[in-house]
Amino acid sequence: MNHTFYCGKRRFAATMAVFIFCLLLINPGKGLTQQIPVTPATSQPTDTEIIPTDGLFFADIIVRGQPIFQIGSVGDVNATQRAQIVNRRIAGILAQPQGSRNVTVVPDQSRGIATLQVGNRVLLTVTQQDAQDFNLPVETLAQQWANQLTQAFEQPPLAIDVGQRLYNTVRQFQRDTIDNLPSFLGAFLALIATWIIAGSIRRLTLFGSRQWEVDRNSKILVSRLVYGSVWVIGTVVALGVLGLDFATLVGTLGLTSVAIGFSLRDVLSNYFSGIVLLASRPFRLGDQIMIQEFEGTVTQIQLRATTLKTYDGRVVYIPNQEVFSAIVTNNTACTHRRSSIMVGIDYESDITEAKQTINDAVLGVEGVEPDPKPEILVRELAASTVNIEVRFWVNSRRLPFLEMTSQVAQAIKEALMQAGIDMPTDIYTVKLLGLPPFIDNHRVKDEK
């Protein structure tokens, strides 16, 4: 019984296998794959070429290197191959001479497709698969792609566009140049004349300023101002020859000057102050002056700033606006300068003899000016001394001034001691009027 059941199972399994095999032979592939009908875009067989799919679902349609839109695969033709075919057709149309490149839509209602054509040449076939990919009706999608292609065809290439613009610009410039050639020649001659006249006047100004009692900076400044003024007048004349209105030009220059002056008022103030300083000449190069808390020798006078080298070797740049508004003390404006010291003698000493002794001692110092004569005056009757002020004139340069004052004080002390005139040692002082608290005989060379 078991053997009979086993044989029955084998016969049943064999019968089912034969049945399934027969079904496969009758309808092979049904339910396993779905064939998509491929509609050729043209009579050309390139659209129906069978190429294995590579997994790329969309590819770009390119016009002159710019992507316009994307298309997908159709049947066994993948998106890349389909785009290559369409791009090759577009390149062929663009390679032809300029003509009508309007893209039209030709629908085929019976087949459910639409073709994009330029003249009689088919560029692309829009299928139901494309409509499903972009979720649009076939005719709507075809019209959208046709408009994008038409717009891309009408736009010229970048090189051609740039070339056309350059060509048109050059042509317009040539026409304007020919029309305005007399004005250009007149303006050019005016500029040449201005250049010659300005250079000649500048040289004449420098030559004539040799007789002026001004420094070299002032001479150069005057020549530059004259040179610039001539150029301003010549430029205005040249612009007038070109056809510009003088009233408009002057108004524009006035507004521009106001705007520049307002924005650069501090800088221009320094420059104008420098011009006034060079013209008025309160000091010159090499003078020893004192401006505010700075004292030293003038080493440079520029339009923007004045440079001082102090007695301790520092260089100070002072803006001319500050110099112009400050009190300037010029110690070397005159060749000689008065110095003064105070000497105290005992009440029992003969004042007349002391004054004569001091006078002889002062005149005996080399470097003291005999004219004006030294002035010896009793200035104060202090508690223990009679204070006598001694005034004398020496060189106004700082180092000679300090050295002579020191030598005079030393000579007065020695003369009074030799004459037997008492100067109490406990209260003896020598006060230097108008000098620092001490006298340093080892100053730098700039003080000379």
Number of strands: 14
CATH topology of the largest domain: Alpha-Beta Plaits
Strand content: 15-25%
Number of helices: 12
Mean pLDDT: 77
Ends apart, CA distance between termini: 147 Å
| Order of strands across the main sheet | 9-8-7-6-10
Which spans of ≥5 residues are poorly predicted at pLDDT below 50?
1-9, 21-55, 426-448
Radius of gyration: 54 Å
Largest beta-sheet characterization: 5 strands, antiparallel
Which structural class fits the helix and strand makeup? alpha+beta
The coarse silhouette is elongated
CATH class of the largest domain: Alpha Beta
Elements, N to C (H/E): HEEHEEEHHHHHHHEEEEHEEHEEHE
Tell me the helix content: 40-55%
Corresponding CATH architecture of the largest domain: 2-Layer Sandwich
Q: How many domains, in number, for the residues?
A: 4
